[in-house]
Write a structure and sequence with these properties.
Elements: H1 4-11, H2 24-44, H3 51-67, H4 74-82, H5 84-94, H6 99-129, H7 136-143
Helix pairs in contact: 1-2, 2-5, 3-5, 6-7
Length: 144
C-alpha cells in the first residue's frame, strides 16, 4: 500500500485502454490493501449506532461527486479514494437497513467482487481485440 499510493498519485488510476493497462495494477493493489485495512479496523472498532447516518451521508457525497456536472480535480478524486471511500465501505457494512434492503445487499455483496475482478481484464481484452491498440507490447499482453 505504501508503494502503490505514491505511484497512483503520480501516474493516475489507469484504465481499460491498452496504453495504460499496466498503470491500472497499482490502483488495484492499492484498493485491495485499503480493503484489508478496513477489515482490520472493522475488527478493532466496536459497534456504533451512528454508522447508518455516516453511510447515508457518505453515499450522498459519493453520488454528488459522481453526478457533478464537470470533472472534479484529480486531487479531490484521489482524496476521496484514500479516506472517505473506505469509511463508506466500513459504514455500509455496519449500517442497519430494513430486511429487503439487507437481502439485496447480501446478494450484491456476493456478486460484487467476482464482477470487479473479471471486469478489468475483460474490458482490456475487448479493447485490445477491437483493434484500438497503439502499444504493441501492452496489446499482446492484454489479448492473452
Amino acid at each position: 500500500m505504501l508503494v502503490c499510493a505514491p505511484i497512483v498519485a503520480v501516474t493516475g488510476f489507469g484504465g481499460p485502454e491498452p496504453d495504460n493497462f499496466l498503470i491500472g495494477f497499482p490502483r488495484v493493489v492499492l484498493l485491495f490493501w485499503l480493503g484489508i485495512l478496513v477489515f482490520h479496523i472493522d475488527r478493532k472498532i466496536g459497534d456504533w449506532k451512528g454508522w447508518t447516518a455516516v453511510f447515508w451521508l457518505l453515499a450522498a457525497c459519493m453520488a454528488f461527486l459522481f453526478y457533478f456536472p464537470v470533472q472534479v480535480p484529480y486531487a479531490v478524486y484521489l482524496g476521496w479514494v484514500i479516506f472517505p471511500a473506505p469509511v463508506l465501505v466500513r459504514a455500509g457494512a455496519r449500517a442497519r437497513y430494513g430486511s429487503r434492503l439487507t437481502k439485496l445487499g447480501i446478494l450484491a455483496g456476493a456478486l460484487s467482487y467476482p464482477i470487479y475482478v473479471l471486469s478489468y481484464p475483460c474490458s482490456v481484452g475487448s479493447t485490445a481485440r477491437s483493434g484500438r491498440c497503439s502499444g504493441r507490447k501492452t496489446c499482446s499482453l492484454s489479448a492473452c
